[in-house]
Batch of 4 targets.
Target 1
Amino acid sequence: MYFFKAISDDVQFAQIEFRKQSRVKKLVLGSFLSCMAAILHSAGDLLPGVGYFISPFATLPILIGAMFSLQMAAMAYFLTILLLLMLFPSELFVFPFTTGLLGIGIGAAFSFFKKRLTIISFCAILLTIGIMGLLYVFHFPVLGPAVSDTFSFLTSGSIFLFALLYSWLWVELALFFFKRIKGTGSSSQFG
């Protein structure tokens, strides 16, 4: 069955190729990914309307970093938080608990789990905890004013179902991305 099959070793291939790179290249790539994540996440403020469709892609740079190296992803994650603190403090609450957390979670899940269902479930739980933490602990209206910040099983279940579908989408995008890297063959993509 599709969800119970083990994923391929494309991520491990990318990690092995990435380890061959110099520290400077790793640092530059991590910095570049954090800048891209900050720009993409801030698109909602920079381009009202269409920017809200662009800002979810802030997960991608953190995800790419996490799939190459969890250490580099952690650096990019915290550097993105610092950039958002300086440039767009209004976006600071959302990134660490949603898009950034999902990127780190998917990358870590690929390193620790092999089955597609386990990876998707782990990421969905992580994203659900992040959204519910913003909504119920910090009372930040991450889902807009229509959703109450008092606990509701219906809202929590809806958040989990959304997180499950959203995580599945990102896991499939990540697998597609790393199959493309493996398909090109050499380590020249990394620098």
Target 2
Amino acid sequence: MNDQKVRRLTELGIALALATILNFVRIYQLPQGGSVSLEMIPIFFIALRWGLKEGITLGGMYGILQLILGAKIFYPLQAILDYPVAFGSLGLAGIIHNWIDKNNLKENGILIFSSVILAGGFRLLIHIISGVIFFGEYTPKGQNVWLYSLGYNASYMLPEILITIIVMIFLVKSSSSFIATK
């Protein structure tokens, strides 16, 4: 195994551990599940640094680890959607990996903002769909199930996405060797 592969695997392992630890640093938690934490930051960092494949892999592995560590599971398909699929979708941020230019901080900020919005939006969409399919029966009478699920999931996802954007822009700007060469 060459040095680059060892570095990539090591960074993925560290990011997986860090995301797990950051999951316990919760800013707030909703009673029926969902919380604002810093758990997405290491997943985005890897996706932006190493690319799409590594980001999706790390996100999926993190989702599986969440299941093992006692995630809220009500239905088997809900568990798959809310954890490995939802967190795996964060790796979509890696599509801009090859466009990041360490010499163009303004453009990097726009790219990072866009990629976190895209990938975080996919995670939000997956949680909304899961909410409609598996938890729609809890929607208050007279409310649209889609809007209820959107409101509930957006109440924790939007602040987490915003925090992640701010931290990721800071991390990339402060790191002179952020981009990994493949």
Target 3
Amino acid sequence: MDSNRILKIGLFGFGCVGQGLYDILAREKNLPFQIEKICVKDPAKVRPLPAEEFSFNPEEVLADDQLDLLVEAISDATEAYGIVTAALRKGRRVVTANKKLVAYHLPELLELQEQFGGVLLYEAAVAGGIPIIRTVEEYFSNEPLERVHGILNGSSNYILSQIFQKQKPYADALKEAQDKGFAELDPWLDVAGADSRHKLCILTAHAFGRTLAPQEVAFFGIDSLGNRDLEFARQNGSTIKLVASVHLTPEGEIVPLVLPSLVGDADDLKMVEQEFNGVVVQGGYSGPQLFKGKGAGGHPTGAAVLSDVISISNGYRYGYKKLQQRQAEPALALDFQIEVYLRTSDPNLLESLDFYRQRIIESAADSDSVVGMVTLESLLRNQDKIREAGAFILALSSDFASPKNVKKYEAVELS
């Protein structure tokens, strides 16, 4: 990059991420970047800059050859898809923060880069301010990985911290997260686990060379969390974290899953609180390493976008080394067994899930709490039923491959 020339940026979106990037560049006068055009959707919306600073026509920005690179920072994944793919077809250099866009369309985005010579970076799409994609892509490029797991959603983690540290009700903790800008007015993507699923799909491509479709990942969240579930965790000396995990089985198959999990004092993720994210990368030779950083907020995510802006202007692009190295795409380990806790008022749900090694933890007039084993295939097949039933499901350990015995409750065998 020629440090004597100011590089011009076209920015799509001026919400939390877009404003975060704008504010950082306004403060860091020594950086050779200038946001030349800002494209937004709603002309009537009140913004902190004069109206003449904005464009309302995406085509105007896409067609401007004077712009050196484009940054996409809008929330609507469908609109983001149109902008990013149009830019790549023009051979443009593009940075995006939209994890849903990348998760659903990564194979197509790879093909467009190859065909038209454009470049797409998306560090800000996963784990906020943690440079986890670049770390997995570069540092672990030649080391086989055994597992990548962690807390990938700062909003849900903030809510859980308020519940366990300050004994706040779920509704109050959610409202506080929304007031602080950590959670959207419609928080479903965050609290239901869908946002973590999108990020896990992206990480899996870089860590294991498998472009997962989101539909291949079972995901569950904290939106049905109740007082009985909290008491179960406390009685077992644990808190609850929403954990996204992908690991290799000894047979070389992968297990991708997003699931609330019991986390004890010895767990690396126990120290990850509030709006922070934490990712544990376990190398075949280097062992587990924890990466921790803010996962929500304009400045942390804006800083991740800026890192991509600097890298892309210096000619960097992802090499997708694990994708290139693989001889065959890892299959899903559909028969992999996970030990879970389930609270449900639907007696048919256990039968649908093919629960086995079942133990009743607590019976009540309105629902039963049960511990047992279930396969990955069963979770995939029944995840909608679990959500529709308002049931809450929880892994007994954040290490899904190593079940944790529940000792604090007297178990009763089901007849």
Target 4
Amino acid sequence: MTGIGYTLPAVVSVVVVVAAELAWLRTGLFRRRAYWITMAIVLAFQVPVDGWLTKLSAPVVVYDPTHFLGLRFPFDIPMEDFLFGFSLITATLLAWTAPERREHAS
């Protein structure tokens, strides 16, 4: 089954992180300019590094084609890498900002 092994968990991770913010944590992270600047900085480093690691001409990291969709952009980067990257960075920032929100609420 194409895409199940890596794609499904990548998509689920995004849904879980976004749902946690919108339904439970409510830190307002997605409304902060600093968050989107952070994501742009992450992408500025992720694209060249991940592009080099996953380039089809000489990959350092090889994905089993039966475990991801095969959508690659830019520089042969699997779409799933961006989804997991979004989830990991956002979850980390939520973990840092959630206690701050609770302190202000008290």
